Amino acid sequence: MLNDTKIKQLKAKDKVYRVADHSGLCLEIRTNGSKLWRFRYRFLGKASMLSLGEYPIVSLAAARQKATEQKALLDQNIDPSKFKADIKEKAKLEAESIFEQIALEWYETKKNRRSESFRHTVEKSFTRDLFPAFGKKDIKEITPYDILKMQKDTIKRVSKQMNRGTGETTAIRNRQIVNAIFNYAIANLRCESNPAVSLGQTVERPPKQTARPLTKDEMARFNDALKNSRSTEMVKNSIYFLMYSMMRSIEVCRLRWEWVDFENRLITIPVATKEQLDRGERNIKMNRVHLVPITSQLLAILEKQKLQSNDELVFCSVFNKTRIMNKTTINRALGGMGFDFTAHDFRATASTLLHEAKYNSEWIEMQLAHVDKNAIRGTYNHAQNLDERREMLQNWCDMVDAW
Description:
Oligomer: single chain
Helix content: 40-55%
Structural class: alpha+beta
């Protein structure tokens, strides 16, 4: 058996060696002179060894007490090494259970496979609402009341801002993000329940504002207002292109030169690639091939854009030509011109006026890239009635010019 005098006399050698005490406890002397307590045992017939600390930080008496504790575990048919690892992992998880840290972990698993819009939304949610509410709190201590209060505070914050709505939609989105974070935490053994799961009806989403056609007065004022606006030529061209083509804002912003066929006067927007889908991006809303005939007005805009855009994007950021134009740019420009309608209202206007002009409803829906109720037919219908749609779109562009 060892004692303190014997231990102090043990010197380093060229190789590591061990000196036994009793009941599986031994002292390991390393080549640098350090002395480590080891507990040797057999579990299910397999020899194993467990570290109990360094001498003299762990005294002889303390080491013997630790060895006794390991033997007690063996008597209960528990592997001491696994028990120690489980305790260490539990302590680590408890130390990493702060909501903010878990939220950032969850975000890291998502951000590279989601769109820039998603990333921007989540980051704003973190900094403006979630982290101020309970970012420093242990995730296991967050209650439904905490989340309800966060929603109310979000609504108050947003409602105080000019032209930002009443906040219900932001509050609901914040709760959905919290719900996803808790599901991630449960899956990774950081907590056992999700306090957000029962709060689905606690905030009522405001009525959705549907697109509306422009009034006669708005049509009469629009062309002069756009020509005289302070927007850059790039932005003015994007607005006219959106109107003439009946496309959505994001579809115009993502339009690429490789999709433009000048010879056949046709734009072919393809299905998104797997890489795009992994980033949460689509070329058009319903992710299917969409054809846009190039009218004389669209052709003139494309020729102008060749001189001021980049080699990939038809429309790019005003401030950084290597980047895509922000989809909010068009609506901000319209607001700056004094109008209270959005880019989407141009599509409603086109639909209304073309129906009034007795054009085939199916052609109009195709040109708007709306979903065909018959999914199989919709897959193959994108090229049908192209000649008729070409004539229809040219007449629509002429209508806009005549406002």
